[in-house]
Structure formats: C-alpha cells, structure tokens
Protein 1
Amino acid sequence: MISLARFGTRDLDRAKSFYDELAALLGAVRAFDRPDVVAYKTPDSGMLLIGKPFAGDASPGNGNQVGIQAASRATVDAVHARAMALGGQCEGKPGIRGDDPNGFYGAYFRDLDGNKLVIFRYGAPDT
C-alpha cells in the first residue's frame, strides 16, 4: 500500500554511508542520488528517501516509524547488527513479537538522526 517514505537528516553524507550499508544487506540500491536527497529501493518495493528537510532542521517524529520487510530472519538479524555497529540506537532486539512463532519477527532501531525503523520478516522461520 505505501510506496514512499522519507526521513530528514542533518548530515546527508553521513546518512548515505549508514543507509548504503543497510541497503546492501536488504538487496536495495540507490534509485537516485541528488545533492539534497538519496532514494533506496529494491526491484519490487517502494522507495525510502533520506534528505535535507524542505524547511528548518531535521528532527525525528514522535510516534513515527518506517517498516522494511526483509527476505529472511537472518537478514533482520544482520541489518540490526550492522545498524548498531554503525552507531544506530537499539529500540528492540531481533525476535518474535506476539504469540505466533510463525508470525512477526522484527528488530527496531533508530538511525543516526533518531528516525525509527523496524526491519521485519512475517512468516515461518527460514528453512
């Protein structure tokens, strides 16, 4: 349903370095790269844009979160670990959420600007 999400950043070059590494783990590439914004996408996904705000300073939203679906639980684990190594803040370690062991498996973190993301896999464990 959602095709595009955008986060603001105070330092676009620093954000590109952070998101380039996470995108690679998710099989995503830069869709475009301009002086004020960069976009990431996979062949079958919407786009995640990271850019300078149109007006004022970048600040994370209160209650905002973007979810990115991963191909496997191992990818969820890898993306979360890399985000932590790059200076992200943990908001929830990788694991099953809810009662269904074949349901939602996710990991939550904040990027270098404080924007909140969840990387998730919905379905049975990897085989």
Protein 2
Amino acid sequence: MMDSIKLLFEYVAIFFICYMLVYSTFLFLSVTVGTSVLYKQLQRRQMKNELQHDYYIPISIIVPAYNEDVTVVDTVISLLNSKYQLFEIIVVDDGSKDNTSQALIDYFELNPIERPIRKLIPCMPEEACYLGYRDNIQITLIRKKNGGKADSLNMGINASQFPYFICMDADSMLQDDALEKIIQPVLENRDVIACGGLINIANGVTIINGKVIKYKLPNNILIIMQALEYNRSFLASRIFWDQFNGNLIISGAFGLFRKDMVINVGGYDHDTLGEDMELVVKLHSFCRSHQIPYSIKYEPDAICWSQVPETMSDLIKQRRRWHLGLSQSLWKHRNLIVNPKSGIVGLTSYSYFLFYELLSPFIELFGLLTIMLAFSVNIINVQFMIIFYLIYAGFGAILSLTAFFARIHTQNLKLDLIDVLKVISLCLLENAGLRLVIAFVRMTSFFRYKKKKNHWGEITRQKMNIDL
C-alpha cells in the first residue's frame, strides 16, 4: 500500500515540476523577448526623430464612469494634454450616485443639449447629454440609466463620430504622446483592428502637461509588488504574444478598436465580468471564422497610467472579478481550441490562458498540498524540494527585476537608491508570497464571488497628481 502511495506522489511531483518548468520557460522567453523589443524601440527613438505627419485618423475616446468624481476630471485633463490633433472625448456616466457628472459640468462648463443617439448596439437609454469644448476638442457627457461598464461602453460607441475608438478607465491618465503611439500600428497596417497600450501603475506618479515629472514608488508594499507583477506577467507576456498575433487581452484601461468590427460582433458583452477580454477573444473568433485578414497589436510605447488597489481587500475583489471574467470568456469561446481555423490563437494562446491562467491556481495549490502531505508521511526528498523551490523563486525574482528595470530604463524614468532597494527586497516576497495569496483568491473566485447585476467592481480611488 505504501509503495502505491509513494508511486502516486512521485507521479504528482513529476507533473508538478514539469508544469512549473514549462511556466518558467514561458516567463523566461516572455521577459527576454519583451526586454529585447523595449530596447529596440529605445534605440529607434534615439537614432531618429519620430515621424511627423499632418494626417491624423480621427479617434473617439470613451470614458465610462461610475462614482468617479475623485478622478474623472483629472482623466479628461490628461486627454486634453495630448499632442494628437483630431479626437473627441465622450464620458458616459452610468447612473453615478456621487458628483461625477456635476464635477465635469462645472469644470469644463458643459451645456445641456438635445441629441438623439442611434443605437447600433443595444444599451440602456440616455437621460441627459451635455456638450462643451476645450482647445477645440469636443467633450460630450452622457448620463444614462445604470447598466454596467459594458453597457456604458456600448453607449459610447453608439454616440461616437469617428471610425476608431479608445476605451479607457476614469481613474487613468495618458502621456501626451500616447494617442500618437497607439494609432501608429493602424497607420502601418490597415488590417489592425485593435491595439492595446502599456498600463503603468499611477500610484505615486506626478504628471504635468502629459509628461511624467516625478516617478516615486509609494511606501505601500502591496503597490510595489503589483508593479513587479505587472511588468513580469502583463508587459512581458503581451509583447511576447504580440509577435504571433496571439494576444487575447487588451486592458480596459487603454485600448484602441476599429468601430465597424466591434459593431459587427455586437459590442461589449453585458453577461461577462471581463468585458475587455471577451471582446478581444470575440474579435479573434469572428475574423478567423469569416476568414477576414486582421491583426490585434500591442504597443508598449503607448503609455497609460492607472491606479491599482492599495489594500488587500480591494486587490482580492479585483482579482476575483478578473478570474471569473477570464473563465466566462474562455468558456464562451471554447470553440477556439478545437477549431482548425483558430490557428495559433487556439493552439497556443487559448491553451496558455486555460492551463496557466485559469487552472493554474488549482494546479499550484494542489501541488503544494501534495508536497505537504508527502512530507507528513515522510516520503519526500525534503532537501531536493527546498532546493527546487528556492531555485524557482529566485529565477522568478530575477525575471521580475529584469522586466521592471528594463521598463524603467527604456521609459527614461529615474529611481532613487531607496526605491531600488525597495524593489530588490520585495521581489522574492512578491514571487513566493503574493503569488500564492493571489492563487488562492483566484481559486475561490468560483465559489465565493456572487455576481451582481451591473456590478462595476469598484476600488477606493485617490486624487491623481496631474496638472494642465
């Protein structure tokens, strides 16, 4: 009997080690490719000036907002600081209970107007529309009945005038060249139907006239660990998948889309918590099933600064929502993994998100529990497992630091010695500590997250350091 149990544990250990080795290999490739791309872009910027052109593709910028009176004015100010010359701003207030609309009306001197909106995509009805101008940029505010973030985005699409739109969160800020950068892939290739920008953590950052003048890591340990995670898991992996047209996620904080394609697929889905990922997967599925030439890009030079949770309770709520949204999107478009037309999207991207994002918390925690059980019955090589875990954690920490400092250097940001020491001292804790906590949270999202109709997944906002 003991021999059978020992054999079972050995098989589990082999599977778990292989699983972690494959994931570590992917992280290594992602960070290597991501760092290489960032430095190539830096060299290109240093060797020649950015191409100056008089031709601008008009863009509609849609900002959905719910109870965002603390940050929404700053977000619009950051948009007005853009170097881009042809865009409109549409803020959709989804039945806020605070002063979101009034803050915009007062600051930008918006006036009520009568404006019928053609509903190309179904959404809740508007209650009032306001219009104003600042530096020849049209600012539209639409107040509507509460319907959720996806519904607000659909309203913004319906109200937009231009062939491309950008969705961004009401707690985010764009750098002054972000619009020029994110539209560049479209200028180079008209098959591009969507493009994501780089999301940096705004907590502690000071921006004036669309430029970062002070980059200071806050004293909040949780924010610093999220910064490490963002650069390793989000920045590096998305640059990697971009090489194969395999990105399944464009962050809802900053993404560009071709309006006619989004209308063709029915807009944002009201029934999923991860409406941003669901739309991208839906675009992949639609274009491949209809054999439409397309490309979905990622542009790390297009930089958006967005706030992240500052408390563990807010982080837990955010990650549960993200993970449940991921599961809904993958389940809804599960045909991608079995459809031969899906190509690399189904074979690699979908498989990666299934086994190393959706199921990873179950696999990792199962492996950890198995090791603990094997240790309790004295059938595990403790020395080997400790060495393996330390190597894995150390390897992950090195990759995290590589991705983090590559971003800092290529974006010409400056860190003082104290911030450098903060990052180095916390990288092991993030990789070995926060990762396990997040894995447990993601696993429990299926059991403890109660879906709320029209739920926005709010987190506590802070006033942003921004000025005209």
Protein 3
Amino acid sequence: MKRGEEMKDRRNQISFDKLLEEIKIIIKSDKKRDEKLEEICKLLKEKILYYNWVGLYLVNPSKDRELILGPFIGEPTEHIRIPSGRGVCGRAAEEGKTIIVQDVSMEENYLACSLKVKAEIVVPIFKNSKLIGEIDIDSHYPSPFREGDKSFLEELSKLIANIL
C-alpha cells in the first residue's frame, strides 16, 4: 500500500464525533485534571495513528508570554518552555489561531523535536477570550492534517478549556 493510500485508509477509520464523546466521558470523570489531560492525549495518539506526539502547552501563570509543557504522550521533548512567537507553538500563541504546517522542513520558525516529525498542527485553547494553552500534535507523515482534524481539535480545545 502506498503512503498516500495508507493515510487515506487511516483517516477513513476515524470518527471524530465518536472520539469527542469518549473525551466528554473522560472530562466528566472524577480523575484529577492532569490525569484527564494525559488520558485525552493517550486516546488521541492511540485512535489517530498519524498523531505521533500529542501534548498540551499551558500559558505560564507568572509569565503571560510563555508556554509550559503540560501532559503529553510521545517521545520526550527538550522544549519545556516556549516563548510567544518561537516555533509553531509560539506563533499560534502570538497569532491566536490554529497553525497547520504540512511540511516542517519548509517552516523557518520550526523548533525541531525529532527528526521523525514531518508535520505539526497547533490549536490554541481560550477561556473567556484569553489564551490559556494549546494542543500540539506532531506527525511522522507529510501533509496528514485536513480540515476535519482542524475542526475536531478546535472543538476539543473548547472541551479542554472547561477543565483548565
């Protein structure tokens, strides 16, 4: 099976609506906040096979223009703190909008986490119109993210905002 066909096949197996329902159950559970967030990250990585690193960055409460790595699933990263404007996460924070990079090798402002990473999507999380965090997804596949991923993750960001 060619890589393009493999990606199409993986996408066809995903029901974003079903995943959102599973995530709502996690959010309503009695678990602690970080346990819920880690469980959500794990679920995304397991269910969406081209989501190879799934993590959350939270705005530093004592330094507004800095993101701090929160719960994540995937290879460890050295990017524990990211200033606003640096890398795809910093740019999404600065611009306040979802950023999709289908080929990280073409991104001038990319903060490399792993040589395996080919693409990244970052979705800001807002509460009362204020940035409070981000969902960050890395993929080992080039050009994997579609409008469905964007819509799904933007809806997820609203759910996560309720527990941050």
